[in-house]
Records
---
Amino acid sequence: MSSIKMSRLLLLSSVGLGGYLAGSYVERWKILDNHSHNKEDYVNDRIDSLVKKVQSKPGLPIFGTVSAASPIPLAEKPLVASNVNRVGQIMKFGFPGLDNVRSYDDYILSYDRRTRVAHWVFEHLTADRVKHNDAVDRSKCDFKPDESVHPFFRSLNSDYKGSGFDRGHLAAAGNHKAEQKHCEQTFFLTNMAPQVGVGFNRDKWNHLERHVRKLTKEYPNVYCCTGPLYLPRKESDGKLYVKYQVIGSNNVAVPTHFYKVVVMEAPDNRLEMEAYVLPNQKIDEQTPLSMFQVPPETIERAAGLLFFDKISRSQLFKINGKKV
């Protein structure tokens, strides 16, 4: 077949296809007119249909950042805020960040799906909430995965088994004694991080947790933010590297350090701050906690977070025991 004939054939095919599409378009509008339908409704229906098709496709990102968590499997109950007023109390001085924020009955956290360890955990402590309560029994609490987290990003008890690391609380169980369920919720694995056991989690880190609880005897309100750090270290080639171990089939990150930033509100409304960074390793029992106090700005730079951003540093009466 000659090129001229081929060109004519393609032209005729294009004209025929164009006529068919145009005819179909006209016929649709005729049908609408015959039934006295609103053309705008037709267009809106078509748009809705397309949106539904897009929404049903897998793999599209959903940009929700704040969700509620509950000790009851979320497959059985809808996601609802457990206590809006309590969230307001805990986060009175601002959120350090808004990545995958999850609210429990007595603490709030931001979960890092990449490391399977929280970015930060926030608590509001008072003398009544941390005092001994016979109705609360820690021995009845079980470590459990948080089913509000997608299975791809959960940490599991099996990740810790045989790893040599403790499931270390970020929000301490001893800080939540008002109700049994408050204590139980601190055992979600979203609130855990791999910690060296002897010499750290069971010793110096525990000393810091007890110190924070003791602050409630002097201050009516104590706000505590806790989290992991992954700090650089100089290697033999003289260069700095960020290296950390991962454990289990879900590659749960082992932080190199942990921080606590605490704000104490005095009866006269004066505000004080303490900031600590402890290495995730065995620490000599005789080392005082004051040795681990650091300027809060150093933690903010390392963590990529701003703590208590509703408080100007000039409003603080003391930082790490020294007058500002």
---
Amino acid sequence: MGSKNKLKRFKENETFSNVIQPSREELVNADFDLKGKWRSQYFKNNNPIVLELGCGKGEYTVSLAERNPDKNYIGIDIKGARFWRGAKTALEKSLPNVAFVRSQIELIEFIFDIDEVDEIWITFPDPQIKYKRTKHRLTNTDFLKQYANILKGNGVVHLKTDSEFMHGYTLGLLHGLGYEVLYANHNVYRNEGSPDEVTSIQTFYEKQYLEEEKPITYIKFKPN
């Protein structure tokens, strides 16, 4: 994407009512007003809150929101030029249960309060295979602790990835931590019984992976 196009999207994001772009300072200084008040102040209902972390173009956020009008969906990504597409689509379709936040995932506890979130989706994250990149892996121990803090007691996390490394790494960590693995599948399109929301929604990159015949893996788990 050219820099002109990116700038155009950044400008357009500023006009979108469903895009929130807090500064890092605002978050770490606890000046972010929506923390703990997403239901009452933003969505103005008491419905469950579902996050998509590293949401990219926001395909999962928008598709799930269309299917489940009784849930609130928030896509989070630092790359606003990407989720511009999802935000624009949600506005075009008049979806009141969709929001996008431009932020780094490691600041998630400054965005949401303890027990404020019901579900988390992590869709096709960068597996960060090199050892030095472990701290950026979205299912490392530090991130899992953050998810456990913002999730309700019965809250769940979904991980959908084309990376067998990420799938195996995460399963190993979950077993080591004693987290409850509710479902695990190393090839959701080949094995029967995969949840409908896993196979019927496909991201832009997922379609490419399927054309290359790469297996798509999925884990659903409950942090302690």
